[in-house]
Amino acid sequence: EMMQSVIEAGTKICADISEARNEIATLRGTLAMLLRPAGLRIASAGTHPFSHWQDQQVTEAERYKVLEDELQDVIRELLIFGLHVHVGIADRERRVEVMNEARYFLPHLLAISTSSPFWLARNTGLKSYRQVIWGRFPRTGIPPEFASYDEFENFVELLVKTASIDNGRKIWWDLRPHAFYPTIEFRVCDAATRLEETLCIAALIQAICAKLLVLREKNLGFRRYAPSLIQENKWRAMRGGMDAKLIDFGKQTEVPMKELAVELLEFVDDVVDALGSRREVSYLETIVRDGTSADRQLRIWKETGHLHAVVDQVAAETVAGVAEVVA
Questions:
Q1: CA distances to 14, 62, 108, 117, 316 from 284, in Å
Q2: Which pLDDT tens digit goes with each residue over 14-56?
Q3: Fold for domain 17-319?
């Protein structure tokens, strides 16, 4: 990536979550094996607890030079790490429809994934400080609602025509129709630490999309709310993670995130068997019970008083259960 200390690892297109499991385990195992001779480890979380962006070596590449010239210190401070999940939807109108409705779940997914409580050796008081850093970028946050794919395409074309962007990949919303692939891309989540957390989040995202498509086929829509309302829930998720209370806009009341997680499991229950992802989706029950990576990091820090112990914990969890691959 732009910083030499950051590795972007991506799976191939996976037909199901079982294939994704093998891909991610292989990627993590291979990286761990390659780094060991140099005395290095991999650690997956939304931020590094104490590393400073000013100490990083920048990768020499024209693309990064262009971005640095455009964004200045905003991108120089980008020592954060996210989990992006693509869901393939062939019909472009369906892509926009699912995006419109799936926006509602973005705060829920963020809360489940929170793994960045520390920044520059400080406890930030937030479970996802990564979102604070990422929110400084242009064209980020909760996407607007679009009436059609053409309306979305016209939006992108206007930005290109006015030299705001050179292509749709520079629209960095928390959820977007991808500029070049027949997918919608969920970008809201912190990088997940444990393999099972990664798979749970990916499986939940796939199941949410599948359920929304099933509802569409039955001519049933799902609730849609203004980005400003969803942003309020997103802030609550950033701040409190699984301990947050999000707003039920329909009932106009607060609901604990842990209760909403149970409701989410009920919402997708009738699609997960067909997807083959019940095992992965059910791991959400463990997250509800034990907390997220952010919660575990904070516990280790309170127990030891040392951020190095937090890094050791994150690094160990990153490769736990991953069979190392020997070339």
A1: 21, 41, 12, 20, 21
A2: 999 999 999 999 999 999 999 999 999 999 999 999 999 999 9
A3: Creatine Kinase; Chain A, domain 2 (3.30.590)
